[in-house]
Amino acid sequence: MTEADTRTMLNKVPLVTLFFWVIKIMATTVGETAADFLSVDLKLGLGNTSLLVGALLVITLIMQFSVRKYVPPIYWLAVVLISIFGTLVTDNLVDVYGVALETTTIIFSIALAITFVAWYASEKTLSIHTIFTTKRESFYWAAILFTFALGTAAGDLVADGMQLGYAVSASVFSAMIALVAFAHLVFKLNAVVAFWIAYVLTRPFGASCGDLLSQPTSNGGLGLGTVGTSAIFLAVIFGLVSYWTVRQRPPQTA
User: Fold this and answer.
1) Using one digit for the tens of pLDDT, what is the confidence trace for 13-38?
2) For residues 230 and 236, what is the distance between their CA atoms, to the nearest angstrom?
3) Closest Cα partner for 162 from 101, 88, 89?
4) Domain containing 126: what range?
5) Residues 6 or more apart whose Cβ sits within 8 Å of residue 243
6) 75: in domain
7) Per-residue pLDDT tens for 97-118?
8) Is 254 part of a structural domain of the chain?
9) What is the model's pTM?
């Protein structure tokens, strides 16, 4: 690989800025509400919804892997779809196969840990600053999938399994995210470790916010519904990604 090829491939993952975290959290919210909308409101069921979203995700990831630089619409479409698919994976295990939330949380924690171990053993880094090969990008998207599935399981475990409710669950995970940021800024927690911990925690935080907004008041939500909540957040994501697309200046690194 030439120096020019390396510089180009560095653009496959966006800069980790405030925009990054805002869009990511909104994508996790959409992952929760859109999955419910497709499977429940449109009555597609978990099986059909999983097949539909899975097919769209495969197509989008093929597009993502085929480009040689960070293309915001493709990248963030992949994040939104993998968020929905990760939610559906957990929902299928829990609702269809009867696997306990505690068990799914452990399973996806182990799967994520194995991914990180294999990634580090192969590449000697987990930094998203260096996603410039197909192998590293493969590890990256595998880790992203497991963070979403784990976040869904952990969020449901806290909100439903422990019966803390959506608002309390969102508060718990937001406090944990704040602690990670504090540890990084004040106590110099390793940036890579802080990033991945925050990435996992923003999933249940976003999911709890999505449930809080979309679920009926009788279930502890605000009653906006899955359609309204998904539409609002998708519109904001579209606006931010469009702005980012216009304003991005190469070279773009994570």
Assistant:
1) 888 888 899 999 999 888 888 888 89
2) 10
3) 101
4) 3-247
5) none
6) yes
7) 999 999 999 999 999 999 999 9
8) no
9) 0.87
